[in-house]
Amino acid sequence: MYYLIVSNKDLFRDFIAKKANFCALIAFEEKDKLAVFDLLRRQFFAEHPQYPIGDDIISQFNVSVMEESGKLYYASLKSAVYVFQGNIKPSVYIEQLRKYDAAYAAAEQKRREIKEKYRKNTLLRRRSLIPGYKKFSYFDAEYGIEIPFRFKTGKEKRKKPLLVFLHGAGALGEDNVKQFVEFKTAVGRINQDCFVLLPQQSSAFAEENSENLEIYAKSLKNMIELLAQSYPIDTSRIYLTGISLGGACVWYSLYNCPGFYAAGIPLMGYMPEAYSSVFRKENFAGVKIWAGHAKDDKLVPADSDINIYNKIKDVCSIKFSLYDKGGHNMMRAFYAKEKWQKWLFAQHKGND
Chain centroid to CA 9: how far? Predict the structure, then answer.
């Protein structure tokens, strides 16, 4: 017996008995696997008519599948091929899903409370125990979002560029620490005197749908604009880089805030809109992009970035590093070996 873990209440609503639940388990036997995945594919295209029916968009989605024994897999919605992820007791996993449902409900309540409490976008300074990195919370009055973040001002008090690092799904939360650790581990030292911004996405955005990522991108822009009122940020040199979920956030930020950023480096990213009939490639006009992925990435298929690259290469300046090996850790080689800092900090809005 297998359990399919469904975690999108809108996309798979036909499978979920209670709409209040964010996650659900569907029990099925191996002989029924192809039929179950076929139903999921049909439901996907029924819910999202903007995507043409076919394999391209489906190849970007994985679901979680668990054996009764506790073996956990990712399975491609396109092929239903299982990729082993580890072992976990079913009772423990179910409890995790219940906690996630509760956390999601709490996040929705918090969003309502933020909208009621804050009439304008607000920055609050917190006490920081990390030398060199100030600690803040940003409250977005429009979207009802809190974004904890770390902020490094650099050496000299002069106008200088801003580098924004957007973390992967493993650093989701509200502790204002995990994204800092991921940045130091993955990226390491920045050899430029610049402002460094390390925002942390709330766990409420663990449902990585387009609406959430678009809202986060717009809220992030609002936060940077507010920071620029207090710090001498060179607004012609605001840069983004991010990995996995953070890579997706780079794409969504460039797409939803056209003309705001000078350049971006999305690694192992994705953007389902690039497959849809409503995709506006002209939103990327004028921005400089260096994308990166590995062909053997089983968690986020390289086709996700390849598709975006092919769609926008005629409207912007873009380069693409496609590694043969590296899997979902290719960013370590990229940040360590590529001359990305020299390239990135040479970019200005409006230069060729």
Answer: 19
